[in-house]
Amino acid sequence: MKREIKSNFLIVLFMTTTFISSAQTKLVNPFGLVYQDAITENASGKVNIHPVTYKLNGIDIAANIYTPANYDPSKSYPAVVVAHPNGGVKEQVAGLYAQHLAESGYITIAADASYQGASGGEPRNVDKPANRVEDIRGMADFITHYAGVNADRLGILGICGGGGYTLKASQTDKRFKAVATLSMFNSGVVRRNGYMNSGLSTIQERLKQASEARAQEAAGGEVLYAANTKSTDEEADKMPFDLYREGHYYYNRTHAHPNSTFRYTMSSLLDLMAFDAASNMDLINQPLLMMAGSKADSYYMTDNAFHLATGTKEKELFLIPGATHIQTYYVPEYVTQAMNKLNAFFGKYL
């Protein structure tokens, strides 16, 4: 019994990035958007939002398309795919940046990952890297056939965990002509080693736990979940890392959404712990922009991947002065700096 309690504690401590909301969220935005200055209605001459669904490998994917002001489907527009953070949904930071990019003249798409959010897939909250990479390719499939999109001017922005999967997708999918990340999070490395290598001593124990969870699923038993916990503000304040502390408040308080949950099937760890977003970085030959807060304790992941990107002649590392990881999601001055850099980057290469 003590061993079971210890193992569950290790799973929570080393492999969560935020925690599940302890309160229901009442959404007032008609599109479910929870970020500041979000669209509340589709009006002529302004940026509009279009909820859509499409099939990806037999799964229903829920997405939002943002179109620029005075959008004319007979014209030609550049487009950007936006990949959301781990546990996040399209209505949070991915939607914020998708809307801002649409304000700059791009047609954008933000979709919930398969098995997550409003998208289909059972069991719920499977979180396998291959699925997330395929989700990104699926967004590219859909948006490049959307009226007005110039498929030869397609870019991608990945945020947090979506940033890691963006790097992996872009290594082989050359439809993406320009690649950008914000606060990149290397999900596999963190699930394996713990945040800032805090879980190195428990790797084999956690792999055993994930293997047993897979066996239980195969036998028709209960699906087990990691990070399936709730946290109080007081507990969050004692967390050892800025990303965890600030992530708690962002996802559970200020920008909470009922579809956003950080639990994932324990068996997903069999795939996650063997994944490294920064492997094969030399395959990226597209222009690359990687952005991170100068005070982000997650910066080490961006720094590592950036220096391994030896296959592109056009790459830039941009540090947002004074920002932590989570603050790049919503603090106006930091979002503005990120958007200014994105507009210059996509404007040059798309």
What does this structure look like?
- With 350 residues, the protein is of the alpha/beta class.
- It has one domain: Rossmann fold (3-Layer(aba) Sandwich).
- It has helices at 2-15, 93-103, 129-143, 161-172, 187-193, 203-218, 233-237, 242-254, 269-272, 299-308, 332-349, and strands at residues 48-56, 59-67, 77-83, 107-111, 149-159, 178-182, 225-226, 264-265, 288-293, 315-320.
- The chain is globular.
- The N and C termini lie far apart (57 Å).
The CATH homologous superfamily is named Alpha/Beta hydrolase fold, catalytic domain
Count of DSSP H/I helices: 11
CATH architecture: 3-Layer(aba) Sandwich
Query: How many beta-strand runs?
Result: 10
Percentage of residues in strands: 15-25%
Query: What value does the Rg take, in angstroms?
Result: 19 Å
Residue-averaged pLDDT? 93
Largest sheet: 8 strands, mixed
Query: What is the C-level CATH assignment?
Result: Alpha Beta
Q: Which range best describes the helical content: under 10%, 10-25%, 25-40%, 40-55%, 55-70% or over 70%?
A: 25-40%
Structural class computed from helices and strand pairing: alpha/beta
Q: Low-confidence spans: pLDDT under 50, at least 5 residues?
A: 1-25
Broad shape:
globular
Counting structural domains, the number is 1
CATH topology, which one?
Answer: Rossmann fold
Compute the separation of the termini in Å. 57 Å
What is the spatial order of strands in the main beta sheet?
1-2-4-3-5-6-9-10
Q: Spell out the helices and strands N to C.
A: HEEEHEHEHEHHEHHEHEHEH
